[in-house]
Fold:
Amino acid sequence: MADEHPPISDDEELRQSIRREIEERDRQRHEQNEKRESVRSANAEAEKRRRIYQEELRRYYQDKPGYREVIRDDGEVDWVPEAEVRHNAALFDEVLEDPDVARKKMRYVLLASAGVLAILAAVIFAFLSEGSGNIQVITNVPGAQIIIDGQPRDLLTDAVIEEEPAGEHYVTVALEGYRIQGQPVRRVDLKGGKTEVLHFNLAPAPADSIVGR
Structure:
């Protein structure tokens, strides 16, 4: 008896397999979305209950004599008898004279933290953007070798050494047949984003002098 169903081609079999994969992926995606929505709803309900509980707690105790509003060690606000506060003050993080004090202090803490973060970000930005400066070296006789921190540079005077790391540097020059008049080595406290300009006066050196000194 002949087979009533024609054979499935390789392409069709592959397509069916891919469709099953897509269906499974879609099913898993729906399950994940349902789980996330369930968790989100549960968290929202818990937060709503906590808020209403605190409102009703304050409404019940705020006009009741002999009770004080305190902050427990878990950060939640509670109302306890004044006698308990006096005898167990160490058990409470803070006793609130005003029901709004906790919220005000929290707001101040958040503002202060934001200010510290802003200052820190500004310092980091300044360090990254202005962590180097320039040193311009000028001599009355051009063509002197520029030496920074004991290392000769490829440039000759007059020239600008660009993007030198900010901080303390020692600069001098050397030119055959000449000596430096005045202080031979100059100390530079280079600031980020700034250019320091150094002038060296060179004079012909005596025959027995050391070049560059």
Summary: The helical segments are 10-61, 82-87, 101-129. The radius of gyration is 39 Å.
